[in-house]
Amino acid sequence: xxxxxxxxxxxxxxxxxxxxxxxxxxxxxxxxxxxxxxxxxxxxxxxxxxxxxxxxxxxxxxxxxxxxxxxxxxxxxxxxxxxxxxxxxxxxxxxxxxxxxxxxxxxxxxxxxxxxxxxxxxxxxxxxxxxxxxxxxxxxxxxxxxxxxxxxxxxxxxxxxxxxxxxxxxxxxxxxxxxxxxxxxxxxxxxxxxxxxxxxxxxxxxxxxxxxxxxxxxxxxxxxxxxxxxxxxxxxxxxxxxxxxxxxxxxxxxxxxxxxxxxxxxxxxxxxxxxxxxxxxxxxxxxxxxxxxxxxxxxxxxxxxxxxxxxxxxxxxxxxxxxxxxxxxxxxxxxxxxxxxxxxxxxxxxxxxxxxxxxxxxxxxxxxxxxxxxxxxxxxxxxxxxxxxxxxxxxxxxxxxxxxxxxxxxxxxxxxxxxxxxxxxxxxxxxxxxxxxxxxxxxxxxxxxxxxxxxxxxxxxxxxxxxxxxxxxxxxxxxxxxxxxxxxxxxxxxxxxxxxxxxxxxxxxxxxxxxx
Length: 516
Hints:
Elements: E1 10-13, E2 19-24, H1 27-39, E3 43-51, E4 59-67, E5 70-78, E6 84-86, H2 95-106, E7 109-111, E8 159-164, E9 176-182, E10 185-192, H3 200-203, H4 212-216, H5 224-239, H6 245-273, H7 277-298, E11 307-308, E12 311-312, H8 318-344, H9 346-352, H10 360-366, H11 370-374, H12 382-385, H13 391-394, H14 406-430, E13 448-454, E14 459-466, E15 472-478, H15 481-491, H16 500-507, H17 511-514
Parallel strand pairs: 2-5, 6-7
Antiparallel strand pairs: 1-2, 3-4, 4-5, 8-9, 9-10, 11-12, 13-14, 14-15
């Protein structure tokens, strides 16, 4: 599908990235678009809203779709009195929680949807208050009360519930999981997040466009490069500029190093959850060496504040280049040995194979993307599908497996580590000379920009609107965990309760990224 029939699309391009089209639509076009996108093989990327009442325009709700031609963003004006719009959850199930969040934060109701429970609110503000409305008093003192969330109950002989969280035994983010089980077999799992909601979307309005990357890079700490790059793309599109070639290559270097670091940590944790503590110690040793190099070369273990609008915040010298090349060779050799240990360990394979299986059909229906999606034969990878600079010159080899179980998601990680190490070496070998940053011009008020980057977990999206005086009027960050958390609830069905930590870790989704 190259376009949406009947829509007047304003086709533009993200700076050095995928084509993006923007259209203002009416309610009938909004309601018809999901079916057209689905029939054309497209998918939903993100859904969010904004308050334009200060401009005399009521509200607006936006949706971004990935289609064959790139990214299509639709804007639907919403009357301030009705504060409603047609829901799209019947076509794209992943949209349901996004719509619930829009209701919590803006008070805009998606009509025709069966699930109207709060998602992010947790009674931290009143039911008639909406934090993303411009008249919300963020300084007012509010009484925090305990709310009774209506989990879906499973009835029947021998069925009982096991509540897990939101406080967990390990040092992890909070999330509540409600299991309905017979014996140890899981009949249903329902999760509830929102415990780490920090009001980041509203906090963007406290920043100017030049400095918003710092907040974007802290949406989800394990994906700081991806979020900062998506923000930078959005800012550069809004400003009509492009980062220098050397900066683009350095961004790709950091993004692939971020991908490798997370895959190494996950492989160790997955081995540990399967009873192989040796894997945890070895992979965490490799990851620690890897992120220490980040600190020495880029000034931060997670490379925070290194990607900025207009380029990057630093550079790589010859000594650092040589060190990273040697380290890439050494890591690849050790990963190959550890992969053989995994493959030959019958106990590990017994835990991995068939556990938490998500069939390709189910993955397609639920809109699973990214690493977990590629483990279930969903071949989305922006580095290949819509390569931003310099990925078009690197020829990324897409990694896809079809079994959809823990074993498949482990294979994706191993294969992507090897491919990312190849990319690191090629980037360092071909790094162009030149400047690493350009000056930022003034922004036109109400101009919009979008960023879309393939992070290690999946595609990260950012929408940015300029206000007066180079301030941010609206910023919206979207993590691929929005699409994946509902899939975990399906993946665990039919498995035993003790396998949940392993299945959950094989996705390793972000709480903070969805709760922002």
